[in-house]
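User: Please predict the structure of the protein below. I'd like the answer in structure-token form so I can feed it into my own downstream comparison script.

Assistant: Understood. Taking the following sequence of 109 residues as input:
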Amino acid sequence: MNEDNNSAGRQGPPAGEAELRVRRIQEKLQQLLRQRDLLLKENGKLREELRQIQQDHLDQAARLEQLQQQVEIVKATKAAMSEGEKRALEKRLGQYIREIDRCIAMLGE
């Protein structure tokens, strides 16, 4: 037996093999660090996207509330209108309803 390989009563891998293992570990560590950085960037983007969607949701909810209030006002004043005014009002109400439906659809996405 070789004295170098058998010193202190233990046998380990040759020095070249240990260096290779260390390099592999370092490469894997670098790969994990790059992957972590990518995931952190993606997480940041997703958080910003969520914040924007939540803000859009609040904006649409406020718009929906405003349109509902306008509809209530129109209903209250409708009784005192002429036929032409009623038709024009119904047309506007139809537009408001379509806008409300569009808002609801956007909130559901």
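That's the full token string. The two ends are 74 Å apart (CA to CA).
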